């Protein structure tokens, strides 16, 4: 993909710049900004030298400090016009994208972002606007004009600077690194910029600021965290490489075909070892064994082979001679893992059986055990995997048990650490607010009178009066909700991933708040819909996408063209959201028996099985993972009637060598005690937070002054009225109370 295509896709995906009739359109920018910019010595912006452009931006920066609200808004619009690429002077989309990138780096270099941040803080603290919005019966776009302009500029700057291009100069690369550091550091009133946006989210959900444009806030918050926490450790990078290598083998054909058409059929997870992805579909059908097709138990409909919503295009010409086809590795795609706890459990069972006693956590002593057990232990140790989480938990236990010996922990001030420290006091409020917005934007949610209004920044002042206007508004509302779901799902996943890399108990703290806020049933409710329709929804109007709408003549929109939608068969935005939600569900339920049982209690198996209809490899993988962890609790009859699903889990999901996920032998031995497990985890988390972040804690390890003279010599501040009641206190508490000297001697 060329640099121009990358920039075009980046701007199309942002969806912040769409110029619709219900928004501030191109005509205003053309009337106001063109006249202002062209007044610079009578020339256009593109004709100015770099020094002249910098001088003009400096004048705009000075004008942002005026007290007149209307004048300040006009200046902000002029800055937005620059950030959008001075489109009135451009003839092609390529020119718009080029000048947008040029101007964004210029604006950042001149300090515009910091000035915008001050204006944003002022708008957030504008109690008059908040009070006015609370009293209004209906809130529209007009109530958030200033906020939307500021947030649009800031989003453009964050997203443009975030993306690295091949032709970037060393100055731009240095500016990008400085911007990342700035966003992740507590430079804005002693806290990161993301916390200011989190505050906007909580104020909106508490009904104190119902006019806040939540879609723009959430998009900016997502991109800000994506930039500020962009830390690629060697461990996470290695995992990513392995993950991508696996999906290269799974979807190599779909990747190649994507160069010829925007969207094609994906072979998902059902063709890895047996089929050659370079063969056409007809050859595949001839090679399929009819016995394999009908080998399922009667009454089962295979979710991996039905309802393909993407029709394959004509097969492309072969990319290489048939003799040079790629040979795929045999066997399972993943190498199995073994935890140390699994080895301990295996040896404990073996010693009880053959010797009659155990040796605790000893995994090295094999005396008295038969030779097959020796070989088994050797195989288990060869696949032993120690995760970062296990190392961090063990380290935390040592710090808790031996605080004096271990000394004080040196905590690295990473962006994730700074963000967690800032979010810690109000983390539960942030999580609840995000889940409230996710619930309000979910397609399965029903409108309630007490629910929050997330459409404040999409509804116009005057409601539509024609069928065409109503259709456009309906598409815009649906698209608005889809973007909110996308931003929240990506934001939560980013927080979980980076906090888990930073420290496991930070991850567990966020995950537990998600569980307590009913995140598990909320995600299941989200998927309890016609997921095929959601994935293939067409809530977009290509003619109104930026920058297409400002450089091309606007075609006539009709009800028929709006109903037909675009030519894409998939909505990648919704597919992205679904994968994120599945990954969140996987992260908060992995290795948690009580939360896995919640999946069983909420009857998630049929909901997840319906999601397997979507033929996309990554989405199917995470669905199969969720089915795998609860398979042992679904009963023998379910496993018997879903053998193809069981087969897909076995082939595509990583397993533990001694994992009995398909049998459920230990169900009777493991009762479901949700409260006990969560309380034990909560106790570990609180100990971690207290030890690491409560610097004023009064623990038993605080040094005590045992010198009598030193203690009596300390000055004690007494209240002013102490001398009035001192004698009465002595009489009541000292002289009138008998002293049991014998009891004191016995106590000694």
UniProtKB/TrEMBL annotation:
CC per GO annotation: cytosol
Signal peptide span: none
Domain annotation Far11/STRP N-terminal: ranges: 13-323
A GO biological process held by the record: cytoskeleton organization
Sequence ranges assigned to domain Far11/STRP C-terminal in this UniProt record: 370-726
Classification via InterPro entries: Far11/STRP (IPR040185), Far11/STRP_C (IPR021819), Far11/STRP_N (IPR012486)
Source organism, top-level taxon: Eukaryota
Composition skew (Basic and acidic residues), residue ranges: 272-282
Family: Belongs to the STRIP family.
Descriptive protein name: Striatin interacting protein 2
Organism: Cyprinus carpio
């Amino acid at each position: 993909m060329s640099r121009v295509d990358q920039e075009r896709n980046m701007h199309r995906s942002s969806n912040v710049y769409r110029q619709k009739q219900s928004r501030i359109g191109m005509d205003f920018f053309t009337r106001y900004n063109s006249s202002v910019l062209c007044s610079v010595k009578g020339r256009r912006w593109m004709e100015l030298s770099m020094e002249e452009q910098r001088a003009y931006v400096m004048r705009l920066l000075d004008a942002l400090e005026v007290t007149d609200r209307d004048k300040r808004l006009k200046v902000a619009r002029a800055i937005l016009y620059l950030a959008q690429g001075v489109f009135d002077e451009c003839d092609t989309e390529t020119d718009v994208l080029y000048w947008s990138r040029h101007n964004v780096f210029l604006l950042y270099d001149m300090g515009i972002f910091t000035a915008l941040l001050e204006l944003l803080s002022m708008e957030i603290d504008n109690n008059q606007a908040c009070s006015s919005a609370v009293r209004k019966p209906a809130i529209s776009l007009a109530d958030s004009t200033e906020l939307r302009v500021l947030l649009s500029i800031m989003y453009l700057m964050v997203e443009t600077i975030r993306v690295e291009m091949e032709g970037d100069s060393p100055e731009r690369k240095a500016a990008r690194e400085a911007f990342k550091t700035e966003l992740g550091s507590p430079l804005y009133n002693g806290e990161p910029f993301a916390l200011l946006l989190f505050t906007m989210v909580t104020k909106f959900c508490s009904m104190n600021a119902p006019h806040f444009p939540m879609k723009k806030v959430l998009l900016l918050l997502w991109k800000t965290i994506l930039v500020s926490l962009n830390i690629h450790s060697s461990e996470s990078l290695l995992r990513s490489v392995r993950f991508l290598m696996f999906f290269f083998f799974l979807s190599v054909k779909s990747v190649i075909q994507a160069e010829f058409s925007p969207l094609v059929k994906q072979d998902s997870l059902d063709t890895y070892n047996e089929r050659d992805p370079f063969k056409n579909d007809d050859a595949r059908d001839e090679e399929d064994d009819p016995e394999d097709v009908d080998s399922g138990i009667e009454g089962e409909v295979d979710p991996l082979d039905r309802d393909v919503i993407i029709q394959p295009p004509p097969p492309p010409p072969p990319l290489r001679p048939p003799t040079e086809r790629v040979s795929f590795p045999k066997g399972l795609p993943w190498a199995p893992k073994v935890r140390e706890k699994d080895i301990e459990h295996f040896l404990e069972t073996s010693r009880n059986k053959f010797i009659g006693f155990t040796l605790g956590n000893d995994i090295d002593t094999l005396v008295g055990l038969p030779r097959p057990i020796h070989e088994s232990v050797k195989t288990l140790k060869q696949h032993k995997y120690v995760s970062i989480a296990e190392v961090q938990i063990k380290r935390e236990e040592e710090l808790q048990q031996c605080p004096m010996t271990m000394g004080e922990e040196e905590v690295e001030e990473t962006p994730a650490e700074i963000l967690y420290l800032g979010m810690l006091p109000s983390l539960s409020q942030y999580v609840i607010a995000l889940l409230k917005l996710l619930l309000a934007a979910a397609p399965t949610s029903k409108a309630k009178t007490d629910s929050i209004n997330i459409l404040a920044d999409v509804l116009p002042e005057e409601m539509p009066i024609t069928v065409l206007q109503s259709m456009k508004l309906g598409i815009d509302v649906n698209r608005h909700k889809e973007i909110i779901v996308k931003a929240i799902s990506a934001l939560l996943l980013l927080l979980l991933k980076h906090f888990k890399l930073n420290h496991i108990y930070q991850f567990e703290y966020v995950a537990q708040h998600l569980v307590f806020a009913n995140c598990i049933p909320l995600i299941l409710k989200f998927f309890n819909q016609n997921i095929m329709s959601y994935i293939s929804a067409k809530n977009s109007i290509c003619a109104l996408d930026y920058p297409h709408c400002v450089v091309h003549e606007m075609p006539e929109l009709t009800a028929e063209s709006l109903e037909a939608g675009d030519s894409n068969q998939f909505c990648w935005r919704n597919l992205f959201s679904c994968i994120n939600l599945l990954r969140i569900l996987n992260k908060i339920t992995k290795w948690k028996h009580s939360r896995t049982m919640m999946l069983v209690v909420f009857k998630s198996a049929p909901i997840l099985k319906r999601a397997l209809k979507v033929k996309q490899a990554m989405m199917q993988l995470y669905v199969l993972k969720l089915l795998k962890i609860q398979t042992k609790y679904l009963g023998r009859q379910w496993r018997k009637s879903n053998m193809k699903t069981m087969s897909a889990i076995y082939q595509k999901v990583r397993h533990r060598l001694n994992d009995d996920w398909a049998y459920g032998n230990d169900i009777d031995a493991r009762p479901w005690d949700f409260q006990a497990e969560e309380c034990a985890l909560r106790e570990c988390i609180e100990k971690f937070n207290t030890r690491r972040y409560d610097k004023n804690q009064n623990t038993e390890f605080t040094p005590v002054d045992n010198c009598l003279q030193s203690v009596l010599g300390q000055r004690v501040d007494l209240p002013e009225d102490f001398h009035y009641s001192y004698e009465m206190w002595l009489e009541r508490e000292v002289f009138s109370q008998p002293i049991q000297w014998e009891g004191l001697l016995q106590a000694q």
